[in-house]
Amino acid sequence: MNAWQSKMTDIVDAHVHMGPSAEEAVALDIQKAIGVDKTVLVSIQNPANGSGLPQSLYMKARHPDRFYVFAGLNHGEKLSEGRVRTPSLVEQLEGFVAMGCDGIKMIEGKPTSRQMMDIPVTDPYFADYWARVEELGTPIVWHVNDPEEFWNPELLPAWARKQGWGYGPNDVKKEQLYAEVDEVLARHPKLRIVFAHFYFLSADLPRAARFFDAHPTVHFDLTPGVEMLYNMSRNPDATRAFFLKYADRIVFGTDIMSRNTIEEAIFRAGIVFRWLESEDTFRVPKGADFLLGQPEDGIVHGLALPDEVLTKIYRGNITRLAGDAPRPLDVGRAIAECTRIGAIAQGMSNTPAEDTEAVLVARKLEALA
Fold first, then answer.
1. Strands 300-301, 140-142: pairing kind
2. What is the H or E stretch that residue 68 is in?
3. Could you tell me the maximum CA-CA distance found in the chain, to the nearest angstrom?
4. Residue 352 burial (CB count, 10 A)
């Protein structure tokens, strides 16, 4: 296997997904294999099965110096039309902070999430939450939108079609999602947000620059979205100039999942490392995971960024937002939260709470306490 390893050290991967807690060893092996020092677990909650956040809390408890946790919101009450009760979004936020979570992960802005819960982020449902996030200064990793070709059936990649990520005339439009974000930021200009996948503006760097200039507290992460690499490889000189100008606003991430094989994880991280560090022209390796598409889909041109810029992208920018080290976890609060999540899942799906990942993690945490 011929994979690129970074020349840099003390790297923080700011966008990773943790599967079941049983994948603990795999997650640790991936972290070691790709050569990162710390990982941000972005933890989207699935209120119907009790997964998403609990397993990330478990990793934080077990490896407190290695894992940050950005907690997703639980919308079980809305999704169940009131059959279950959940704390308000403000109460959830305050609970996450008190527990020792390092930030918030939001998926509310991806069109598939809008299909599940058709509530704009400008709705009164979110109003108090936004105000409190701004007041606390809690950082957010936020997925808003998808690649523009997802709205065009002729251009929709096969791997995206397989995931159900093609959108039609009845789905929310890309520009509407951007307009809603603009409204949130106008109301709350101090929000500290990392927009995932370069905010899906990789094909329009002038627009990305205008967005950065208008909103000085926002950032973009580099999680592929393989279209990001292809879009920005069309004019590598312009891309490099953008990265040099906005070096304080760009955050490294891979979107690795703990279910990835070690080979897939090495390739996924390696293409980003190679793109940022080398002058090479290359394709996605054949051993990469299917979400990166086929090698013949496009060419990547390296940016050969200077070390001082790489240091900011790989570590400095995310630690400025989330801290030099992960916050300590209050295990008692984490146990209570996992137990509550399990009860919500039981109420939504009739799955016994004891069979959920949430309660499984609660039991493991009790053994650690």
1. unpaired
2. strand 67-72
3. 56
4. 11
Residue 9 domain-assigned (yes or no): no
CATH number at residue 301: 3.20.20.140
Q: Structural domain of residue 79, as residue ranges? A: 18-368
Q: Classify residue 354 as left (phi > 0), alpha (psi -120 to 50) or beta.
A: alpha
Tally of structural domains, the chain = 1
Residue 288 lies in a domain: yes
Angle between helices 357-368 and 331-349 (to 10 degrees): 160
> Tokens standing for 55?
């397993």
> pLDDT tens digit string along 312-345?
999 999 999 999 999 999 999 999 999 999 999 9
Residue 215 lies in a domain: yes
Dihedral over alpha carbons 18, 20, 22, 23 (to 10 degrees) = -30
First to last CA, the chain: 42
Are 132 and 366 spatial neighbours (Cβ–Cβ below 8 Å)? no
Q: Residue 13 in contact with residue 39, Cβ under 8 Å?
A: yes
Asked if residue 251 lies in contact with residue 14, where contact means CB atoms within 8 angstroms, the answer is yes
As a whole number of angstroms, the distance between CA 333 and CA 331 comes to 5
In a domain, 54, yes or no: yes
3-state secondary structure (DSSP) of residue 82 = coil
The string of pLDDT tens digits covering residues 222-236 is 999 889 999 999 999
Contact indicator for 140, 106 with CB cutoff of 8 Å: yes
Dihedrals phi, psi of 168, to nearest 5 degrees: -120, -165
Full DSSP string of 30-67: HHHHHT-SEEEEEE--BTTTTBSHHHHHHHHHH-TTTE
Q: What is the pTM of this model?
A: 0.97
Which is nearest to 36 in space by CA: 75, 70, 77, 68? 68
